[in-house]
Amino acid sequence: MMFEKLKVGFHRLGSPPTFYRLCRRLSPWFWAGFALCAVIGLYQALYVVPPDYQQSDSFRILYVHVPAAWQALFGYVLMSILAAIALIWRIRTTEILTMMCAPVGAACTFICLATGSLWGQPMWGTWWAWDARLTSMLVLLFIYLGIMGLYSAFDDRRKGARVACILVLVGLVNIPIIHFSVDWWTTLHQGATINLFGESKMHPSMLPPLIWMAVAVKLMFTAVMLDRSANELVDQDRRKNWVRKMIGDYA
Amino acid sequence: MSVGSTLLALLLRDLRLAVRHGGESLMPLIFLFAVIILVPLGVGPGPNLLAAIAPGMIWVAALLSSLLALENLFRPDLEDGTLEQWCLTSAPVTALVVTRLFSHWLITGVPVILVAPLAAEMLYLPDRALGTLLLSLVIGTPILTLVGGLAAALTLGTNRGSVLLSILVFPLIVPVLIFATSAVSAAADGFETGANLGLLAALLVLALTLVPLAVSAALRLNIE
């Protein structure tokens, strides 16, 4: 009985009006969570954590750089899972969610590259290096841009989303290459510092704000994705009855 | 008609078309030489500098020229309805896709391998690296065709395919370029090339396994 109810609830998410209302209802909570985590994380990162013995205060850019990099990769994995669901079960709302991951993921990748460049100038003495990890991130940015470009190149947006979903899954092959690239062609960028299993190489006092910021960026990603999906859905369905009715309600 | 004879008919038709188009099929090759000639004009004729950048330049030229012929890989067949017939024949679409990509490689990839010694000589690539260059092209050009074919299939339903096509190919082809040119550079410096060529071969196996499936899925979506 309980399972049946869950199943019906899940299937309802495929209906545009229900999906739209859910997006609009959930996104303020994600925004609020983001604001809370970001305030705590930034306060700790800027005032509580002691300066690094070697890099003094400039290492603090890490608290934007690393969460953005994690989210750029995690966002891609999330997008691939959504793309697989969209292709297998042909759910239109999932297709829209998948496509709306791409611009946010591209923004995270860009932030990661930009902050890394600002950090690299004083520490490595260069804005850019053709290091494996930097190059992989740049390539990831172009994959995101390619997905967005492919989606927008179709007149039929539904078809565009489905074709772009295939590209998402193809690009997934790139994620392990990014991950192992550090071990394969180590040059300038340091190896992984944070270990999920076992001891991290980072000083424990530096870790809490990083976790707060990582959670904040994940919540922000979700909030933006939900808002964009709701907007895209209304835009695509602007001539449909349910949108007219809804606008009528507000007018 | 059995599956084998269908595939053979498709292969022979593609090759016959390429021969009858003549000059048009050779355009990518002329473009490749245009790039190779522009390099010394751009960076100077010094043999040492040219020898150092030769592996990368030959590979970049091969990559760029492979993009040229992609636009017409599936588009004429989409426009005259042949692709719909592909989906209706008893032969699996994936097998037809592999055949089409194979004939495309014979037309665009093999000539590049054949003229590579000439390009290598023009850029003063050391003789001991020539074998590795040819081997890297033999393994690498099928990957260029596979990835390019995927991009061509994905952009089939759009009207401004060509720019988008190169943007889609570029990120996916990066590992191929890295492994192939590292192998050739290593050979030029007298080092071991097995690891890089092995990784390149692994990429070929991966592409050969997955790309035809993705291409046939994209073709099916585009004729809907």
Q: How would you describe this protein?
A:
The complex is a heterodimer of chains A (251) and B (224). Chain A has a domain at 61-190. Chain A starts with a helix and ends with a helix. Chain A is globular. Chain A has helices at 2-12, 16-48, 62-89, 92-124, 132-153, 157-171, 174-184, 207-236, 241-250. With 251 residues, chain A is mainly alpha-helical. The two termini of chain B are 26 Å apart. By secondary structure, chain B is mainly alpha-helical. In chain B, helix 2 (23-43) runs antiparallel to helix 3 (47-68), helix 6 (93-122) packs across helix 9 (194-223) and helix 8 (161-188) packs antiparallel against helix 9 (194-223). Chain B contains 9 helices and no strands. The longest helix of chain B is centred in the middle third of the chain and has 30 residues, at 93-122. The chains are: A mainly alpha (251), B mainly alpha (224).
Note the main attributes of this structure.
heterodimer, A: 251 residues, mainly alpha, globular, B: 224 residues, 9 helices, 0% strand, elongated
Mean pLDDT of chain A: 85
Q: What is the average of the pLDDT values of chain B?
A: 89
For the record, give the distance between the C-alpha atoms at the N and C termini of chain A, rounded to a whole number.
40 Å
The biggest sheet of chain B amounts to: none
Residue stretches of chain B low in confidence (pLDDT < 50, at least 5 long) are none
Helix content of chain B: over 70%
How large is the radius of gyration of chain B? 18 Å
**Shape by Cα distribution of chain B:** elongated
Which bin fits the share of residues in helices of chain A? over 70%
| Percentage of residues in DSSP E strands of chain B | under 5%
Describe what is shown at a glance.
Chain A has helices at residues 2-12, 16-48, 62-89, 92-124, 132-153, 157-171, 174-184, 207-236, 241-250. With 251 residues, chain A is mainly alpha-helical.
